[in-house]
Amino acid sequence: MISDDAVHTIGVKELPINSLQPNPHNPRLLFDRADMDILQSSIQRVGVLVPLTVYKESRTGIYRILDGQRRWMCAQAVGLQKIPVNEVSEPTLVQNIVTMFQIHKLRKDWELMPTALKLELLMRELNEKGEKRLAALTGLDEAVVVRCKKLLSYNKKYQDMMLDPDPGNRAKADFFIELYVVVTDRNVTKFDWFSRNRFTDAMLEKSEKSGLKSVTEFRIVKQHINNAAKAKKLPSISRRLREFAEEPTLSVSHLEISSASTAAAARKLIKDVSGLTDKLKSIDEEDFYGQDELWDNLEVLSKLIKQTLRKVGRRVD
Questions:
Q1: Residue-wise pLDDT tens digits, 124-176
Q2: Staple partner for 254: which of 138, 201, 213, 250, CB 3.0–4.6 Å?
Q3: What is the mean pLDDT of residues 26-53?
Q4: Can you say how many angstroms the Cα of residue 146 is from the centroid of all Cα atoms in its chain?
Q5: Would residue 157 count as lying in a domain?
Q6: Distance between CA atoms of 39 and 230, rounded to whole angstroms?
Q7: Structural element, H or E, at residue 62
Q8: What is the DSSP string of 221-261?
Q9: CA distance 54 to 73
Q10: How many Å from the N-terminal Cα to the C-terminal Cα in the chain?
């Protein structure tokens, strides 16, 4: 049974190439030159082998492209006068966007920011924010939907940076996705000096001046903030994070507060010790009676524990 979100086929035919226009709701806004050159060379040799998918706009009579904008652009560039198309019924706005997502989902991924903008339009039209439902509608992975929603939380200035037509100048979506956990941290947003846009600008500058080795270092920044919060050192991490933002060459290590790091290491060790304690409580000694290597290692551990306890002044029987 055909879904209500699907468009219906009318038939295959040839149309004058100038009777077609791009779809204003195409999530794919960016077309890298290198890929286009390869496709253009192919079309120049053998023509357009796969018909475009189009619909006729009832209001204007214009044929809009649902699938095949790259083929259409390259066919124009090599001077083709006609182009094969598969005409379908005019879709609603929601059908339009959903159809294009579904058509392209098995092909090379779109840049995330254009995808996010069309996802935003779909969310608004359907009044739908749930990642599972949006993933099911578009064919995108749920994780991709989550990443798109993070990008939509940024100011338009940053969104435009990710839409630069020149791949060399285009800001990477991964930068903003990784930064998201820092600029939305509930403690950071309460710091009196913090401004999300100013901090984002500072991180972009830091990235350019090698103050960041990789965008994944924002995960380390987040961990330092978490450690400081748990150790009740928020004033210290606030000061250090501000210095980190203001000085482009400062590295992530500037954020490390030794007492907070020690507390984090202690929490991990407590978890490991608790896990080992539970395992030892649950074993049946008779079942492991002949496992000499196990008992030897436990003896070594027992001696080490006693030595360590004595060093910190604990009484050991």
A1: 988 989 999 898 888 888 998 999 999 999 999 999 999 887 878 889 999 99
A2: 250
A3: 74
A4: 7
A5: no
A6: 55
A7: none
A8: HHHHHHHHHHTT-HHHHHHHHHHHHH-TT--GGGG--HHHH
A9: 14
A10: 77
Q: Residue 85 phi/psi, 5° resolution? A: -135, 155
**Looking at the structure, do residues 244 and 313 belong to the same domain, yes or no?**
no
In this prediction the pTM is 0.64
C-beta of residue 74 within 8 angstroms of C-beta of residue 43: yes
My answer on whether 15 and 147 are in the same domain is yes
Q: Is 12 helix (H, G, I), strand (E, B) or coil?
A: strand
pLDDT one-digit tens code per residue, 218-259: 999 999 999 999 989 999 999 999 999 999 989 999 998 876
Of 77, 98, 86, 84, which is closest to residue 56 (Cα–Cα)? Answer: 86
Residues 24 and 117 both lie in one domain? yes
Closest-CA residue to 199 (of 244, 159, 233): 244
Q: What domain range is 259 assigned to?
A: 187-264
Token output for 88: 């379908």
Dig out the tokens for 225 from the structure.
């903030």
**What whole-number percentage of the chain has pLDDT above 70?**
88
Give all strands (DSSP E) within the chain, no chain letters.
9-16, 20-21, 52-56, 63-67, 82-88
Q: Predicted confidence band at 209 (pLDDT cuts at 50, 70, 90)?
A: confident
Any domain includes 181: no
* Residues paired with residue 88 on neighbouring β-strands, in sequence order: 9, 55
Q: Which residue has the tokens 């993933």?
A: 135
Q: Confidence band (pLDDT; 50, 70, 90) for 204?
A: very high
**What is the rounded distance in angstroms from the CA atom of residue 6 to the CA atom of residue 96?**
9
Rounded Cα–Cα distance for residues 39 and 48 (Å): 10
- Name the band, by pLDDT with cuts 50, 70 and 90, for residue 105: low
